[in-house]
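Q: How do we represent a protein-ligand complex in a form that can be generated token by token?
A: Start from the inputs.
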Amino acid sequence: MRSQGVRKRQFLGLITVLAVALAACGGGSSSDTTAGGEGAATTAGESAGELVTVGFAQTGSESGWRSANTESMKTAFSEENGFELIFNAADNDPAAQIAAVRGFINQGVDAIVIAPIVEDGWEDVLQEAADAEIPVILEDRTVTAPEDLYATWVGLDFKREGVYAGEWAAETFGDTPTKMVVLEGTTGSAPANDRAEGFDEATAETAIEKIDSQTGDFTRDGGKTVMEGFLTKYGVDGIDLVYAHNDDMALGAIEAIEAAGGVPGEDIQIVSIDAVHDGMQALIDGKINYIVECNPLLGELAAGFVNSVLAGEEVEKRNYVEDQTFTQEQAEEALPDRLY
Ligand code: AHR
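Then emit the structure tokens for the protein with alpha-L-arabinofuranose bound:
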């Protein structure tokens, strides 16, 4: 039987500390820490009476999450806060993103912030930034390059997000034979890799069978197109569960299921990650069954790290922002106060 007994996890909300405060205290080491929220960023440029020039290489504009992240970054890296921001969105093209970073190096910016589209292939350009003595701060996604090639990273624990989604699926479906399809994020990206790994670990002992898995590139259109293919192949009756690596792909899947005559959330259950506004509304409407949050509001933390690094302070290498999870009831309560 499909149990709805979902363990309720209420994290303390977004904001626990610490990385910026720790950095300010000079308490650096190579260990991880948990950071949080939109805390105050000191402004190195302001105190020096001039703006700090920062090149930001964003992934693109693939999702609602990305729009919220871009807005958070632009707000934090404002002139008012002492920054001149040079913004580039690479339209999800890894080569274009690396070229943008090279452009920042050639311009001689004070610091570079990157939300890396994919994990691999960063060694050369990070080394070039290091040779030019321009510090690199990673936000959101991680890279496989050696840690000494960048100053710090701030973002979410993608594997843990996958574990939370998988724990919900395990508790909901358990021993019931369940046919699952997966809408993967961008191939080679940290969230796609880690969310797959976490979910698979959490559901390893269940009767959930992954019958298909394809990338929808974190976009609504991509999710819809891939789901249409799955429905043509297996039919509404041949799929019990969709695991979408983000809300936008889940929203595309909802459109595909409805067009195929199915009822999303009932005929086919859906679990996804992000908790952006449209996803939360679909959860409240019963079309998505469970959502794991991925907090996009990383701007002030990233700006704080830029200032700390430029001031020569030691900072933690990895700084995690906490996420929470939402059932339908929890989404109803939370949505009115959410910032994205
Ligand atoms: O890297 C974070 C992921 O990127 C978000 O989950 C997804 O919506 C975005 O495109």
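The chain has twelve helices and 13 strands. Residues 2-156+296-320 form a domain with the Rossmann fold fold (CATH 3.40.50.2300).
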